[in-house]
Amino acid sequence: MGLQEIMFYYFAVVIVVTALLAVSRGNPVHAVIFLVPCFFHVAGIFVLLGAEFLAAIQILVPAGALMILYLFVVFLFNLSEIKGKRITHRQSFLAGIVGVLLILLLIVLSVQGIFPGPFVELVESLGADSTSTVGGSLYTRFLFPFELASLVLLVVMFGAMVLARREEKE
Amino acid sequence: MENIGLYLLIIILKIIGIITVALGGVTVMNWVERKVCGHIQHRHGPLYVGPLGIFQPIADGLKLFLKEDITPTNVDRVLFIAAPLMAFVPALLTFAVIPVGPHLMISDINIGLVYILSVSSLGVFGIVMAGWASNNKYALLGGLRSSAQMISYEISLGLSVIGVLMYSGSLSMTKIVMAQQGLWFGFIPKWFVIPQFLGFILFLVAAFAETNRLPFDLPEAESELVAGYFVEYGSLRWAMFMMAEYVAMISASCVVVTLFFGGWLPLPVIGPMIEGLLPAGVVLYAMPVVWFLSKVAVFMFFFVWVRWTFPRLRYDQLMSLGWKVLLPLAIFNIFISGILRVIQLN
Description:
Helix content of chain B: 55-70%
Number of domains of chain B: 2
CATH superfamily of the domain at 3-82 and 91-125 in chain A: NADH-ubiquinone/plastoquinone oxidoreductase chain 6, subunit NuoJ
Oligomer: heterodimer
Strand content of chain B: under 5%
Number of helices of chain B: 15
Shape of chain B: globular
Largest sheet of chain B: 2 strands, antiparallel
Shape of chain A: globular
CATH topology of the domain at 3-82 and 91-125 in chain A: Four Helix Bundle (Hemerythrin (Met), subunit A)
CATH architecture of the domain at 3-82 and 91-125 in chain A: Up-down Bundle
Mean pLDDT of chain B: 83
Largest interface: A-B, 24 and 27 residues
Strand order of the largest sheet of chain B: 1-2
Low-confidence stretches of chain A: none
Distance between the termini of chain B: 50 Å
Order of helices and strands of chain A: HHHHHHHH
Mean pLDDT of chain A: 79
């Protein structure tokens, strides 16, 4: 087993464990904080794949900005009310079935060998500079979905502004 | 396998070196800050421990080291212990990609600048975790403030460097420095501070906010929040927060120098004159480090100077400065730099 594979299994195990801890903790602050190492190790897998730019963005946006925003919201809960209670959603049963199906699908796919071998070989063709590869492909091959995503973001931004403004008037 | 062992050994030695220099820098900065602050306020500053009080930080460090380590009863124990580490480690991580001289860095990754932005955005976790885990309303308010402040100013920080990227064409810190070589009209250096002056100002203001220094030290505003997020901390854990602030300040100065002031490149006109007097070996190996450190020292003095000159902003002023002034200016800067760059390249 090479160094890369050892690192991959380390990252994979930590991602799964921290993700499980994040959904199973009763204390929402702990749950959010467990997501931080989870995102960090996802970034580690990006590095193994040679996508350093994505790895840095993975830390900058989800681990850095989003988690702080989540913490900000969670802080404003009344924690003494929530503590100890089991927080489950009405749809948890349905979600459980979907989750089990997804795991079964993944097992079937990996047994059949549809996932092609070690990832490292897959991404070798991207070239050394992942930043220009990402930029180049976003503005050429994936221009339409990229612009579509920006349109969605614009609509969401307007939505947030409208919501915030309405509250102000009341 | 022997080569891998040697490679790891060199990297570990480099990391130890950088950490030692950074912590030494913290000690010196602590003394400089108190001395400069003293003179700004017409006092002497530390005087008694060593000549000019220069061993005062060591005496203070010893005092903090020997103090009893108190963990209050109702804190979230794990997070309370982890928070100082979470504040301190990201601040040190930045140094991994800062080029002190040509090839004098731990790792020249090709996404250096994004790495710095992402790592420095993690420092806030320590503050937020400390604020929440302390189970104290002042600490919590400090934590909340810092999370809002960091998110607001991180955006301006990220957008203000895009102009630099347009000029350098690379995210690698070494390439950014190399792109600033040369002179205009024989005496004006091609440092990015000149074409990117607006970007530089925006970056500097945002960096002050990111490092929680006055006039943006609302998370610890002592006049209203006692000491903010670290009010429940004492001894070495408190010292870690303080060191994190200083390390963040040093790394912010290093980043400003690298991005806008030509990193290790010599000063124009005076630089070649001084280098002409020295032997070639010194010029090649030692002088880049000297130039870099002296530029960094100027900015660290600037940090101290600003702290003892300006009053603290009010919270709503902080938010409106971040969102209504810095952010539009940063976007305007990207727009103008883009146009200028296109004209220049054609």
